[in-house]
Design a protein that fits this description.
This protein is an alpha+beta fold. It has 3 domains: 2-107, Phosphorylase Kinase, domain 1 (2-Layer Sandwich); 112-290, Transferase(Phosphotransferase) domain 1 (Transferase(Phosphotransferase), domain 1, Orthogonal Bundle), CATH 1.10.510; 310-456, Kinase associated domain 1, KA1 (TATA-Binding Protein, 2-Layer Sandwich). 32% of the residues lie in helices and 21% in strands. The protein contains 16 helices and 18 strands. The strands form 4 sheets. The protein has a 7-stranded antiparallel beta sheet with strand order 1-2-3-4-5-7-6. Strands 14-15-16-17-13-18 form a 6-stranded antiparallel beta sheet, with helices on both faces. Strands 8-10-11 form a 3-stranded antiparallel beta sheet. A hairpin with a 5-residue loop joins strand 10 (156-158) and strand 11 (164-166). Helix 5 (124-143) packs antiparallel against helix 7 (206-223) and helix 13 packs antiparallel against helix 16 (450-456). The longest helix has 20 residues, at 124-143. The two termini are 26 Å apart.
């Protein structure tokens, strides 16, 4: 297969198949089903189970040429692993080589919603059906601090039952990107679906711009054409900014009122997700239709699987340049430095030894918090703090991430250099009698960085 073979060129981690296909990891890659500026999407099949998957292949070289970097990819990975909703495409695994990153995702057999509506407008009942699924998923995203920012029919896929799945979170934002003024400021989105406040370049509420885009989508489903459209981009932007659109005459009064509130150019008075859920037109059949949609237990949404080896997603997440710790709680951002080490000891044994270190230390250290795979240590009246997180790397090896800080002006001794690091030398893995550290987010003091480990797995 030409399409699947092209991304294997120069990569030593692929296996050929007699049929001409390519196998990456445990997946056989088929034909290309989509293409964008930085990625291509292929249909794939798990070799053992035969289950269909979608494999999004991101070229690191194309990212760099496009002015993007690892943080853009790591953000998309973090967002997709954070979300578990029936109307959101599920990311199951991430694989990586020296030049490419592979997102293994749920395969949406029904294709894009855009392809369906481009053949003709939907009835109000069918428009409502998809809009209800869309709002359910968007509201869920917002509750998890995620704003999509590029909602459009091309990014809404359909599964084999023709139910909706939101995809492509490459332009999404998280709450940690909100500036002190409480707003987002990055200019992004697709012109015909972008909210007027984004065009104003004065900052915007991520939830409000997603609602606007949902309004444009609902208009398209009901009308079969865009509310704002012109060959001249600036003319189209003026229409958006002024809210210059006409609702089709066949639209019912209730839907007309909802569309007017969705496409309100004033974000302060624009309808909210909660208000949409109580709208008379929206509510028709909503609970009956959504009863089959169950939100899954968040226990499988954690960054690391506690009792299973880490795959490339976890390796990428922990490597310098791909560090995602700041996306999973404010606590991580309080620390000045991150160091990572591997060890052949179990997590329980490592934590036990850390407790022994705390008890023996002369700096009056205390264990502030302890969990099954982690520990928080404090000292010097709060001037020193350290958080340890332990995750299974292989069946025999764990990775220990240590985030720590020592505030300026804190009295000597330097607890990290004088107490903690010498202790770690005795418990981390030491091939050839050399301390194997997995990199630091500040300085590469140790002999092997996690970035190098990632490229050889």
């Amino acid at each position: 297969m030409v399409e699947s073979a092209e991304f294997a060129a120069g990569e030593g981690n692929f296996r050929g198949r007699g049929s001409g296909g390519v196998v990456v990891g445990k997946y056989e890659v088929g034909k290309m089903v989509g293409c964008g500026g930085f990625a291509k999407v292929y249909h794939g099949r798990e070799t053992v189970t035969g289950q269909s998957v979608a494999i999004k292949v991101v070229s690191k070289q194309r990212l760099q040429k496009g002015g993007l970097n690892a943080s853009n990819v790591s953000r998309e990975i973090a967002i997709m692993h954070r979300l578990r909703h029936p109307s959101i495409v599920r990311l199951s695994e991430v694989l990586a080589t020296k030049s490419k990153i592979f997102f293994v995702m749920e395969f949406a057999k029904g294709g894009e919603l855009f392809a369906k509506v481009s053949k003709g407008r939907f009835s109000e009942d069918l428009s409502r059906h998809y809009f209800q699924q869309l709002i359910s998923a968007v509201g869920y995203c917002h509750s998890r601090g995620v704003f999509h920012r590029d909602l459009k029919p091309e990014n809404l896929l359909l599964d084999d039952k023709l139910d909706l799945k939101i995809s492509d979170f490459g332009l999404s934002a998280l709450t940690d990107q909100i500036r002190p003024d409480g707003l987002l400021h990055t200019l992004c989105g697709t012109p015909a679906y972008v909210a007027p406040e984004v065009l104003a370049k004065k900052g915007y509420d991520g939830a409000k711009v997603d609602v606007w885009s949902c309004g444009v989508i609902l208009f398209v489903l009901n009308a079969g054409y865009l509310p704002f459209n012109d060959h001249n981009l600036m003319v189209m932007y003026r229409k958006i900014y002024k809210g210059d659109f006409r609702i089709p005459k066949w639209t019912s009064p209730d839907l007309r009122r909802l569309l007017s509130r969705l496409l309100d150019t004033n974000p302060l008075s624009r309808i909210t997700i909660d208000e949409i859920l109580h709208d008379p037109w929206f509510k028709q059949g909503y609970h009956l239709r959504m009863s089959k949609f169950h939100l899954e237990d968040d226990s499988d949404m954690k960054l690391h699987a506690l009792d299973s080896p880490m795959n490339a997603f976890h390796i990428i997440s922990g490597s310098p340049g791909f560090n995602l710790s700041g996306l999973f709680g404010d606590d991580a951002r309080e620390y000045d430095r991150v160091d990572r080490f591997v060890s052949g000891w179990t997590a329980a044994r490592l934590l036990e030894k850390l407790e022994e270190m705390v008890a023996a230390a002369a700096e009056n250290l205390t264990v502030a918090k302890k969990e099954a795979r982690g520990m928080k240590i404090q000292g010097q009246k709060g001037n020193f703090a350290m958080v340890v997180e332990i995750n299974q790397l292989t069946d025999q090896v764990v990775m220990m991430e240590v985030r720590h800080r020592q505030r300026a002006g804190a009295s000597r001794p330097d607890i990290w250099s004088d107490t903690v690091r010498p202790f770690l030398v005795g418990i981390v893995h030491k091939p050839d009698d050399t301390l194997l550290g997995l990199g630091s987010d500040q300085n590469q003091e140790d002999s092997s960085s996690l970035r190098d480990v990632n490229t050889t797995l």
